[in-house]
Design a protein that fits this description.
By secondary structure, this protein is α+β, with helices and mostly antiparallel strands. 28% of the residues lie in helices and 36% in strands.
Length: 174
């Protein structure tokens, strides 16, 4: 009996894992399934590029102007959702919820989206002034006085800001 339960558990796990695929969604709404890889430019190593090898074996370098979303499973970024901002940069989703936080791929700049709005630069932490970081993030909590009060009692460090965003999101993800 235990062996049967174990077998079915492993079978369900294998099927659910096998159904998950890497893909790219274009700005036109097309979905391309295949293997996603990341590379840097030979002449400009700070410029991140993504490539996809589709299910037909065709390879294509992705232009951020044409990409909406990349779902990567086993690449250098691990299992991740990557979006584009300003038609120029790739950002990785690091906090998901009502407030989404993205980080520049291979960078330290942060971007924010609330209620699925357009992703905007809203940098905090790192070398940013703590007061300025705090004041840039504060409006995101204006619809929750309890969170806002707690946020106002904290210094605007990257760690505190991420903590408060996760706490805020946990109230809406129940």
């Amino acid at each position: 009996m235990k062996q049967t339960i174990l077998f079915f558990t492993l079978l369900i796990l294998a099927v659910s894992t096998a159904q998950e695929k890497e893909y790219v969604v274009t700005k036109k709404g097309d979905t391309i399934y295949g293997k996603v890889t990341r590379a840097t430019g030979f002449l400009n190593p700070s410029k991140v590029k993504f490539k996809i090898k589709d299910i037909n074996g065709d390879k294509k370098v992705l232009n951020p102007k044409n990409v909406e979303t990349i779902k990567s499973l086993k690449g250098i970024d691990g299992k991740s959702i990557i979006k584009t901002v300003y038609d120029d940069w790739y950002v990785k989703l690091i906090i998901d919820g009502k407030i989404k936080v993205y980080q520049l791929v291979d960078g330290i700049i942060f971007f924010i989206s609330k209620d699925n709005s357009k992703i905007k630069s809203n940098d905090f932490g790192g070398f940013n002034n703590r007061k300025e970081s705090h004041s840039r993030i504060r409006p995101l909590f204006s619809d929750n006085p309890t969170i806002l009060k707690e946020f106002d009692s904290l210094v605007g460090t990257e760690k505190n800001i991420k903590y408060m965003i996760e706490k805020y999101n946990s109230l809406y993800n129940k």
